Amino acid sequence: MTSDNIVQDSFLLSVLAASTHAREQCMQLIDLAEQSAVASTQTLPPETKLHLSTQQRQLNADLASLRLSSRDSILEVRTTKQDTAEARQEIDRLHLHLQNLYYEERHLRAEKFLHLEPEHLQNDERSLMFARINHELAEREALEQQRQALLKRKQGLIADNKKRKDDLASLDKDLETFIDVHMQIHMVFRLPADRR
C-alpha cells in the first residue's frame, strides 16, 4: 500500500509530491556528482557546470517549499490543538454545570422530604437516607397503584367503545333491513314515491 492510497488530504498530498520531487532532485545531483568525480581529473564543461548549478537551485527551491509546508502544518496543528482545548474547556464547563444541577436536585429532594416529614429533622445521615428511601418507595407504590387503576380504566373504556361500535354496526344492519322491508312494502302497494 503506497502513501498515495493512505493519505487523502490535499495539503498532505502536495507535501508528498514536493518531497518526492526533492528526492528525485537529490538523486540526480548525486548522479551528477558521481559523474563529475569520475571526471574530476578533467575540468568540467560549462554546460555540465550550468546543469549542476540549475539542479542545485531546483533542489534548494524544493527544500524551501518543504520547509514552508512544514511551517504551515505546524501552525495548523497548533490552531487545531487550541480549538480542541477550547472545546474541551466548554465541555468541562458544561459537565460541571450538570453536576451542580444534580447536586441542587438532590438537595431540593432532601428539603422536600424534610418538609413533608418534619419528624426526621433530628435524624443522622444514615437514618435520614433510609427514611427518604422508604418515603420514595411509598410514593412509587402509590404511583404504581394509580397507574394500574388508570390502566384498568383505559381497558374498561376500550371495551365500552368496542361494545358501542358493535351496537352501531348491528344498528346499521337493522336499519338496512328496515329500509329493505319498507321498500318492499312500497313495491307491493305501489305507492307513489312522493307520498312516502
How is the secondary structure organized here?
Elements: H1 3-6, H2 10-38, H3 46-116, H4 125-189
Helix pairs in contact: 2-3
Radius of gyration, taken over Cα atoms and rounded to an integer in Å: 46 Å
How many strands, which pairing sense, and closed or not: the largest β-sheet?
none
Structural class: mainly alpha
**Outline type:** elongated
Which whole number gives the mean pLDDT?
83
What's the helix count? 4
Give the proportion of residues in helices: over 70%
Report the uncertain regions: none
How many distinct beta strands?
A: 0
The succession of helices and strands, N to C, reads: HHHH
Q: Distance between the terminal alpha carbons, to the nearest Å?
A: 94 Å
Percentage of residues in strands: under 5%
